Amino acid sequence: MPPRRSHKKSRAGCRRCKVRKIKCDEVHPRCGNCSKHGVSCDFEHPGVRDTHTPNIASTSDATPAPTETPRPASSTSASVSAHSPATHGDSPTNASDTTTPTIIGSTPVPIYKTPEPLPLSSTTTKRNRMLELKLLHNFTTMTAKTLSVSSPVLERIWRVTVPELAFSSASYLADTLLAVSALHLRSSAPHDRELIRASHSYMASACSEYGACLSKGVTESNAEALFLTAALIAFQSTASRIFTRDDINDRTGGYSLPLSWFHSFQGVKAVVAATWQWLRISTIVIPIIESQPALNLDLSGHPTFFSDLMVGVEDEVAKFENDTATQLETRMAYQHAIAVLDWAHKIPYTGAPLVFLATVSRRFIELLEARRPRALAILASYFALLKCLDDVWWLKGVARREIMGIVSLFDPDDEEWWPRLQWPLRIALHDNVIIPPQVWGRDWAAQTTNTSQGGGFVSHIELLSDMFSTMPQMNGATPDLEPAHQYIVEQEGMMRDILLPEGLEILPVD
């Protein structure tokens, strides 16, 4: 009888083969037996092998051992080895058996698991997510710097604080940030259809949600978000003007006035006045207001640089206004608008001219809509003030284009108004942003006006708040926001008529 061939028992087989008491071919990353039956093999996860060897002797070929109940993590390896029964997940199976064994819960769990899918909409694509990241990055690194003329504190609010507020409380504010950022990127790529669609789609979404919120009223928790959204909508309305055609024609073929600018800024004013009880103590809104130069208006009637724009006002109101109250309202609308021009003319490079849009009265806007010559001449002078901000991306070329458009509405033989348009024309045609005093009409650099205190704006808002407080209350506690809601509805419609390029459909945001 030949000697018995020596045999070395393998101890490196997979756990499943050991439990089934069959020879494992030890093929990695999945042994032959496990591959054949389509089950998990612990060779695939070498770092998650049990710390103890199964008790083969206690395993019955006919009856599987009960499934092991997991022990607390604090149990020691010694107690596990001494007291834990062997665990296996299937009954012994012949090599020819093609039935897939049942996997019991003790199958080793891999360390690295496939992550659960993110809770994104089924319509959200990777491209859309990357676009939003791009827009947010651009807003925080670039756009926020352009929302303030010369205020580091205000820049940080737009760059850091406002996005944080958008993430925590208001999706419409977040949509507005993305819309403004897309518009900013368009200034370098005006024909990029992806940016065009993003700018309009996000703004349309923001206006819809924002309008719904206004219709329900405001609370202390959302007053800041509503103000910031209104401010960014007004900014979007203003900045979008640079992407319109050079002639800025309306449906009749003539020059189209930028009425959307005024409507959107009037909306900001209405929101501020209606929510001032909360905004007056806001650490976000008050710095924005105080960053503006003091609004010191001269309403005394003394001669000023723009006094000639008031000449003949009595004859005009007597001709066009039927009652004394309307005559007084019209006269005051002109007087107040011209006072703002005089104030901003003294300190043009501080950003003061931008205040004009929010401070003029509703009556003045009605006079613009009626295309009264005096209102148009005042508007031309306002755009001349913006010439000193021509290096800002969203105001580049605006002064010249708008003034030439307004002038086109006048007859050159008009002896009454054509001479009063000469100053805006000279400013519009000037080649440089820095305008010499002899052209500007005042040595603005030598002015001693104190622009470091912002109390004038706070007082102005206090007056508006008092006016709104006399209106009916919503739900017994919330200020009436119908004026603000009206403006935002008007603005949403104007976006489609004025801001939307022809042939481009506004699609919902994914």
TrEMBL record:
- Kindly give the CDD domains that the UniProt entry links to this protein: GAL4 (cd00067)
Q: Which Gene3D superfamilies match?
A: Zn(2)-C6 fungal-type DNA-binding domain (4.10.240.10)
Keyword annotations for this protein, in alphabetical order, are: Nucleus
GO molecular function annotations of the record: DNA-binding transcription factor activity, RNA polymerase II-specific; zinc ion binding
Q: Does the keyword Nucleus apply?
A: yes
Segment Disordered: which positions?
45-124
Q: Which InterPro entries match?
A: Zn2-C6_fun-type_DNA-bd_sf, Zn2-C6_fungal_TF, Zn2Cys6_DnaBD
Question: Lineage in the entry?
Answer: Eukaryota, Fungi, Dikarya, Ascomycota, Pezizomycotina
Q: Which residues belong to any copy of the Zn(2)-C6 fungal-type domain?
A: 13-43
Spell out the PANTHER family in the cross-references: STEROL REGULATORY ELEMENT-BINDING PROTEIN ECM22, ZN(2)-C6 FUNGAL-TYPE DOMAIN-CONTAINING PROTEIN
The residue ranges flagged as biased composition, category Low complexity, are: 62-87
Q: What is this protein called?
A: Zn(2)-C6 fungal-type domain-containing protein
| Biased composition annotated in UniProt, kind: Polar residues | 90-105
